[in-house]
Amino acid sequence: MNEYDSNRIFDLTKKIDYLKTENLDEANCYVLNTCHIREKATDKVYHDIGRIKKKFRKKIKPIVLVTGCVAQAEGDILLKKEKYIDAVIGPQSFHLINKIILDIEKKQKTINFTEFDVIEKFDTLNSLKNSCNKISSFLTIQEGCNKFCKFCVVPYTRGAEYSRSIKEIIEEANQLVDNGSKEITLLGQNVNAYNFEGKKLSDLIFEISKINDLKRIRYTTSHPKDFTQDLIDAHKDCEKLMPLIHLPVQSGSNKILEAMNRKHTIEEYLRIIERLNKINSSIKFSSDFIIGYPGETLEDFKQTEQLIKKVKYINSYSFIFSARPGTPAFELEKINKSEAIKRLIIFQSIAEEIKIKYRESLIGNISNVLFENKTKDGNKYFGRDEYLNSVIVKSKESLVGKIKKVKIISGNHNTLYGEIDSFLSQNNYAA
Ligand code: SAM
Ligand code: SF4
Q: Residue 302: which of 350, 261, 338, 236 has the closest Cα?
């Protein structure tokens, strides 16, 4: 979502002639767009500002803005501690960025903009074309969260759940497709809680799938509690919907899920997976895990191990519990740090083993790959298959924006290498 927000910030600042630059030494304005989900985010801001200061020691000071969730959560502290910062702007206030920059140019004081103006923000953004011209692009449809998991800052930094209207989302999706996008990932902190005047995520998916030149649709991140039958059915009925579902579970233990206030049990979670596999056996899953949540015993952890072995996630994102100030879990007694690290290492080695086996099983298979760009070295093209695996092939003709059938020949941890299957691709068997 920060990538989406950063692109929209560039769309806004173009209006006052502040353009994106790759030349960091010459920038007149720095925007540090931050995430607050785990610790160290604030330290990173201070480090980055230290680097900017060094670059500009003998030059005119650039404008320095801190945007995003760190600004929301710790804006006042940042402004007090680091005088080099000109303004902090929360994630629901960045539509005001042009006024803020112009005020700073006029040498006004440091500013804290951390109101929750989500409606005003999207009203402003809707009046600007989305200029992102990537083959695969993001589109925020929903923001904020009402779930209040005990460990999470999102309800406090992004505010309450808000869903954009179907009309404005379709308009933006059409802009992205006109710019060349073939794939859109619908974004939300709780994307499947999307609800605009009774229209749900599944309704939106079917509406967007009517855009002819759009070939692939994804959505992230879903919450198990909101995974309703209509969304499950969409995976049967909408061909453009990709068969990889990111469904965070956090823990394999019901006791820990309850302590986290996740609002579902492991049995309910597994039933969603079962129902999805039943209607579409090609669906695969990825997930997020928090290891060493306060109160997690060895037995709870073993249940998490069992869960990943059962579901065989093709990607597992795991982190040790990070105590975030202002959340209810911040006050809880932490488990021993070295024990938490030990569990994380065990977890990640099991997850890795599952991933390696999965990737080995792809060798010799045919994958549908959407090509995104030419690589820097030679006539090679980079793309992604339906499961977001990175694939590189050699080709004399440009493949950018095309979906081809690719035979996977080899692979390493990050990338698969393949050859275009000309017969299948020419006969248009690619989706
Ligand atoms: N809304 C999604 C859900 O509930 O499934 C997840 C969104 S959250 C922004 C992304 C991930 O960050 C979570 O799934 C969780 O694993 C991780 N996360 C959030 N707070 C954390 C914390 N305090 N410590 C460690 N990981 C955390
Ligand atoms: Fe955070 Fe997701 Fe829980 Fe909301 S549902 S509080 S975003 S982890």
A: 350
Please list the rounded mean pLDDT of every run of 10 residues in the chain (431 residues): 94 95 92 90 90 90 95 92 94 94 84 86 92 96 96 94 96 97 97 97 98 98 96 96 98 98 98 96 97 98 98 97 94 96 98 95 96 91 98 95 97 93 63 43
- Mutation pick for ligand 1 pocket among 36, 152, 291 (CB with most ligand atoms within 8 Å): 152
Residue 301 in any domain: the answer is yes
Question: What atom in ligand 1 is closest to the CA of residue 149?
Answer: 4
End-to-end CA distance of the chain: 27
Task: Confirm whether 20 is domain-assigned.
Answer: yes
The parent domain of residue 331 ranges over 120-361
Q: Compute the distance between CA of residue 32 and CA of residue 67 in angstroms, rounded to an integer.
A: 6
Question: Which residue, 52, 86, 115, sits at the end of a domain?
Answer: 115
How many structural domains does the chain have?
3
